[in-house]
Specification:
By secondary structure, the chain is of the alpha+beta class. Helices cover 38% and strands 17% of the residues. It has a five-stranded mixed β-sheet with strand order 9-10-11-12-13, covered by helices on one side. Strands 1-3-2 form a three-stranded antiparallel β-sheet. The protein has a three-stranded antiparallel β-sheet with strand order 4-6-5. The protein is globular.
């Protein structure tokens, strides 16, 4: 393996560079569908989180424009990077799904309920997948409906495995879930049927690395593997070494970047930004110190028993947030990880009220503050 080389880049420079590439230093005029493609998808485990993510990134963002792309199947929600739901463009879905399929199948086969499927003889394994595809071709189904439909022939397979076909089949979670202001219990269809187009060859790894670095770089091999869950990527990066620029982090990690990509000076101001739950800007690196202060731990807010977003102050995660609503009022509760100045609190409140005006325009608004005390206690069992 080549020796670590390149100049040292400060954590704050990495922070400002990441925010710039993620459209979080200044809101962009980029159209929503183009932004979804540029960002290599948006976390979408919570169906409407992509709207908050783009509101924080795009100037004058209209949620109905993105919703129209989702309704027209130009953007689609499916399980790809890290085995989690993302909103990606239809064209990206056709190449990302085949690329991630082996990793997702490995995740599925490593679970207690998936091992019995993994260990089927190859012919039976394909028959199992084929039966599920045939059922979904007849009509979209919830996981429970799919498990029930598979039960007669495959009763020996655990129900949880029959419910979890999203890991071993290319499927989409269909609308109206994912459209602005609409909902539906999670319902699945074959991805190619939903898009009306066949899947394509997997995106070449080198292309995916370049796209990742364009919005997350400079980054290490471990960072890319954390973002994608694709294993053993060192060989790919080494093969691209002559096409990339290298740096070192303050902790000595080797970082790769596109050769013509610029770094942003660490003293560039960073505005307050509200990010949705599981935003990729927080999850996109193995070493998250460029955006999550190390004292808060790598998995700050990630293992919560509730869905919380994060608040960036001076470019770093300094608080989390939730919204509660009644018929008359939407209340945004900000929980600070560290003391905030009066100026910072005013900035957070102003940004929070703007978010409420975007997401809950028909109600009164309130922003509250309190110190973060950790996730709620798990109920006794």
């Amino acid at each position: 393996m080549a020796q670590t080389s390149g100049p040292v880049v400060s954590t704050r420079t990495l922070n400002r560079t990441l925010l710039h590439r993620q459209l979080l230093l200044e809101r962009s005029a980029m159209p929503p569908l183009q932004a979804v493609e540029y960002l290599v998808g948006l976390q979408a485990q919570l169906p409407l989180d992509p709207y908050t993510a783009l509101w924080s990134r795009l100037d004058g963002f209209d949620p109905m424009v993105l919703s129209g792309h989702v309704a027209r199947r130009e953007a689609v929600r499916l399980v790809v990077m890290r085995g989690t739901l993302h909103l990606v463009t239809a064209e990206d879905a056709r190449v990302l799904s085949p690329r991630m399929a082996p990793t997702l199948a490995k995740v599925f086969g490593g679970t207690a309920w998936g091992r019995q499927v993994r260990d089927l003889p190859s012919g039976e394994y394909e028959a199992f997948r084929g039966d599920a595809r045939a059922l979904l071709k007849s009509q979209p189904m919830t996981a429970a409906q799919l498990a029930k439909g598979m039960e007669e022939r495959w009763s020996q397979i655990p129900e949880q495995a029959r419910r979890s076909m999203t890991y071993i089949l290319p499927v989409a979670q269909i609308t109206p879930r994912g459209e602005w202001g609409k909902t539906l219990q999670p319902t699945w269809a074959n991805l190619d049927d939903w898009l009306g187009k066949p899947l394509r060859k997997p995106i070449p790894l080198a292309n995916l690395v370049r796209r990742y670095l364009a919005v997350f770089g400079p980054a290490s091999v471990a960072d890319f593997q954390n973002w994608s869950r694709l294993p053993a990527m060192r060989e790919t990066f080494e093969g691209m070494r002559q096409q990339l620029r290298t740096y070192r982090s303050e902790t000595g990690r080797e970082l790769f970047d596109l050769p013509d990509a610029e770094l942003v000076p660490e003293d560039v101001p960073a505005p307050v930004r509200f990010l949705p739950t599981y935003d990729n800007v927080v999850l996109g690196h193995d070493d998250r110190s460029r955006i999550v202060p190390p004292r808060h731990g790598k998995n700050a807010f990630i293992t919560e028993d509730r869905n919380v977003g994060s608040v960036l102050v001076d470019g770093f995660v300094r608080a989390c947030w939730t919204v509660s609503t009644t018929k008359k009022q939407a209340t945004l509760a900000v929980e600070t990880l560290a003391p905030t100045s009066k100026v910072e609190q005013r900035q957070i409140e102003a940004a929070g009220r703007a978010l409420l005006a975007f997401a809950h325009p028909e109600t009164a608004h309130e922003v509250t503050f309190r110190p973060y005390t950790g996730p709620p206690a798990r109920p006794a069992r």
